[in-house]
Write a structure and sequence with these properties.
Blueprint: H1 2-14, H2 27-50, H3 59-63, H4 65-85
Helix pairs in contact: 1-2, 1-4, 2-4
């Protein structure tokens, strides 16, 4: 059940990427994968650190996935912006 909470949170936060320019590595699909992977990774790390099983859910199950999701989205954005900027540091036509 906790996995479903993390996945749903990743998808929910992914919807807010429409408010930033689309410079994510892999485009909007890359942002989708990053959001879900980050939410699952940080949520699972927190759940393991607490010693809870995957069937145990509470508010901290939800809150533990937020930092990982946001960090993964930031990394995907930074990689994509860096790829678009190119070696000169200026945004191209890509």
């Amino acid at each position: 059940m906790a996995l479903l909470v993390w996945l749903t949170l990743g998808v929910a936060l992914w919807h807010f990427t429409v408010f930033v320019p689309d410079r994510f590595w892999g485009g909007i699909i890359g942002a989708f994968v990053a959001a879900i992977a980050g939410a699952i990774a940080s949520g699972a790390a927190w759940q393991i650190a607490q010693g809870d099983g995957l069937g145990v859910t509470d508010v901290t199950t939800f809150l533990a996935a937020i930092p990982g999701c946001l960090v993964a989205l930031a990394i995907a954005y930074a990689l994509g912006a860096r790829r678009i900027a190119g070696p000169a540091g200026h945004y191209g036509d890509a």
